# Entry
Amino acid sequence: MASNGYDANSGAKISFLDSLGPVHPGGIKNLTKLQKLVRLCQYGVIGSLEHFFTWYGEKVACNPRTAIAACILATFLGGLGLIRFYEEGDAASLVIPRNSKFRNDIDWLDNNFPQEIRVHRIIYEADNVLTPTVIKAIYKQRKDLEKLTMQDKTFKDMCIKVPILKFPENLQLTDPTVTNIPNKEDEDWGFDDEFEKDGLPTISPNVSLGGLLNYFIPNKDLDLDMLQRYSNDFYPVPYCAVAQSTELACYEENIVELWGDSGSYNQESDALIESLTEEDILRTINTNNISNIFLKEKNFKEMLGGIKYNHNGEIIGAGAVLIKFYTSVNVSAVKLFGTASRGEKIDTVSYSFEGEMIKLLTNKTEFPAEMVSYVSVQRQFFESFVGQTFKDSDKLGMGYALVFIYVNFMLSKLNCVEQRVWLSCVGILSVAMGMILAYGVCSAFGWFYSAAHTVIPFLLLGIGIDNIFVITQAYDTLESSGVPLSLGKRFGKTMGHAGVAVSVTTFTDVFAFLVGSNTVLPGLESFCIYAAVSILAIYLMQVTHFLAWMSLGQFKLSFKFFCFLF
# Structure
């Protein structure tokens, strides 16, 4: 055995590496120089930590109020970083590596050609959606949609409008804004020739026309080819006047278009819907492919799901129907005033209007009992990525309450003096303070928060409570040894053992998450950074804030005070 660098038996001087002593029955001689160096590093690190935490524990126990104030101040200052806290709602920012070519291309397109059209979907389900009660419920929601307003904007102001394929009434064929009217004497002008070819009379361009369709193409069916031919032949007059006077309707894909009236939902369509029977609905679905809103052919059977047929191949029922609405974004307002929602470019009015749409379309109070709906307003997609911070607050609160009961049961003893209710509260509070400090620091450095981060508070709770158990168990073990020590020395000895244990586990966890932050996925990188900083912050709070409160409790306990609080 070595003493002061000399062998106790022979008195010969030995090296420091040999002074470490045997680690197995074979003795120190069986260790190589490298093994001895590794063992030296191991003992050196552990010994240094023991010396540091012995000193640190004694300082905290002797100055608990100063330690508590320092922790509160650090939490406050770190929490100021939460001013920059934000949740990332852009899916591309969560999974596509920064500075990648694909990410740069997406950002360029988004900045230069932002998406203006927004699509909203509703699926209505019932045993049979082709019944009067279901059709009336769908129609009522469609009518209520027109009543929505947001800052003097209605659904008709927000929707994508398309022309209705009918000629406007009371149309003046001449357009005073058109100046490049061709000379009818020109050999290339085929206005009269075209009419003579079709057997139609020539007209003066100054005629006021109420029935332009009958005048131009009597006894002929109106179709797109004919309209295209007339738009080519009769441009700019009378085509421009017709085009500018054409009625517009909000583009949609809705089964109730079958019962519209000449391009709108009016009193005629109200009465028609109210008098519908199931036979009327089935006959219309099977025989009518004309939208009475847009006055054009449309395959309404494609909107149906779970279709049932009879032996003749006719539809006799359907289990679901898909409805689509289309609205637009004011891109100019987004460029001037910024976006209303992180992750997508949308102006404030459109964002608020979609919020009202969600409230309306998710209201099922007037649905028949067998009818349900599934709403997908485009705003909801990005809201599923953001706003997650407090959505699990009820589960988090319940988890913390259960852990508090468990911690109090483990820390307290079955007497009135050594109840540690408030010490358990302080342990939970130390975890919360560490989270505030860590989240503030991460936010200050620009790291975003996402839906995946919501698991971190539960992870931190388990790690933080484990540190509490290690510290209190080390103190109780020292107390049971009966060694007479002052309060400061006792906590110094306690932290000399517990501090090393919690430090090794904490630094292992922190290192593991820092390694994980080396990923190219931005969402995972941010998650690992938040977890690593949070674990470190809670560790500092447990070995300082919790230890200070514990020393105050033990001080009162040493005088046999009724220590229900600590």
Summary: The chain has four domains: 2-31, 66-87+387-558, 114-163+250-383, 171-245. Residues 2-31 form one domain. The CA atoms of residues 74 and 562 lie 32 Å apart.
